[in-house]
Design a protein that fits this description.
Strand order of the largest sheet: 2-1-3-4
CATH architecture of the largest domain: 3-Layer(aba) Sandwich
Strand content: 15-25%
Distance between the termini: 21 Å
Largest sheet: 4 strands, parallel
Main location: cytoplasm
Pfam family, one: Ferrochelatase
Organism: Paenibacillus aestuarii
Catalytic activity: Fe-coproporphyrin III + 2 H(+) = coproporphyrin III + Fe(2+)
Keywords: Cytoplasm, Heme biosynthesis, Iron, Lyase, Metal-binding, Porphyrin biosynthesis
CATH class of the largest domain: Alpha Beta
CATH topology of the largest domain: Rossmann fold
Radius of gyration: 20 Å
Order of helices and strands: EHHHEHEHEHEHHEHEHHEH
Structural class: alpha/beta
Length: 315
């Protein structure tokens, strides 16, 4: 007897695969409006600065999708899970992933985003696109909306903080300021009572309790360059304040809003924030990204299976 097949649409932001794709990628982010020469140069320069233009996000995402499929099938051998990618700003787009499932004969599916915290402007956007396409094609699909307090996710992040705290030779543990960070979003989400900031704080508090640290705070990073105000304070401003006004000498950044090494980690933290820290005479470290950590793969596997089980019981 053949196994019941469940499609899993694994969604993420997407990235160009090479430097010559940056312009098309940026144009898609800008809703069809090509970037100015200056904007294009700035983004291309950031990619070039990361290990000479190597694009780690796409490879990391491929490995995460493969790792999730292997974990699901290992943990639930009575079923057959098939994972598909759906990217927000690069091919295969979210809609392409849904379409491929239908072509492959998938009739039931679960969608999950490679981002633990929900916002209507981030995860909500992925879900809407996937849902619209699925309805058009008649695919039965349900979605995992967030998993920011999953015990295995908290364990993986806490382990990283614990390990990174050992990088500050001679510094007393209580003298190291830990700053949890995530991608900023436009301030208007606050008026919408969006859960994003509260979910991020809940994850931060849970990690701090597990690692037994009290000297911590939250900061935002990688805000978009738009006319509307974005959530702050920005991490670069926070570093200035900590050094100049509070005399803090050791800072550990923990980018809990990002699950793999990509531009916001490898450039915005490792290059931009690190350059400012050196200028300020600040010892700055960051925690390792989750990437394909088995605990993260198991987190995703758990929430996908749980969502499928809920759905199966309803039908």
């Amino acid at each position: 007897m053949s196994k019941r097949r469940i499609g899993v649409l694994v969604m993420s932001y997407g990235t160009p695969e090479s430097l010559d794709q940056v312009e098309a990628y940026y144009t898609h982010i800008r809703r069809g409006h090509p970037p100015t020469a200056e904007q294009l140069h700035e983004l291309t320069s950031r990619y070039e600065a990361i290990v000479g233009g190597f694009f780690p996000l796409r490879e990391n995402t491929n490995k995460q999708v493969q790792g999730l499929q292997e974990t699901l099938n290992r943990e639930h051998p009575e079923l057959e899970f098939v994972c598909y990618q759906g990217l927000k700003h690069a091919q295969p787009y979210v809609e392409d992933g849904v379409e491929q499932m239908v072509k492959d004969g998938i009739t039931e599916a679960i969608g999950v985003v490679l981002a633990p915290h929900y916002s209507v402007m981030s995860v909500g956007g992925y879900v809407k696109r996937a849902k619209d396409k699925a309805q058009e094609l008649g695919l039965d699909i349900e979605f995992v909306l967030s998993y920011h307090m999953h015990p295995k996710l908290l364990e993986a992040l806490s382990d990283r903080v614990e390990r990174a705290l050992t990088k500050f030779d001679g510094a007393e543990r209580q003298d190291i300021r830990v700053i949890f960070t995530a991608h900023s979003l436009p301030e208007k989400i606050l008026e919408m009572k969006d859960p994003y900031p509260d979910q991020l704080l809940a994850t931060s508090k849970a990690i701090a309790e597990r690692v037994a640290i009290t000297n911590w705070q939250f900061g935002w990073q990688s805000a978009g360059q738009t006319a509307m105000p974005w959530l702050g304070p920005d991490i670069l401003d926070v570093l200035q304040t900590l050094r100049k006004e509070e005399g803090v000498a050791n800072v550990l950044l923990c980018p809990i809003g990002f699950v793999s090494d990509h531009l916001e980690v490898l450039y915005d933290i490792d290059i931009e924030a690190q350059a400012l820290a050196q200028e300020l005479g600040l010892h700055l470290e960051r925690t390792e990204s989750l990437n394909t950590d088995p605990l993260y793969m198991e987190t995703l596997s758990d929430v996908v299976y749980q969502k499928w089980a809920e759905k199966a019981n309803l039908s």
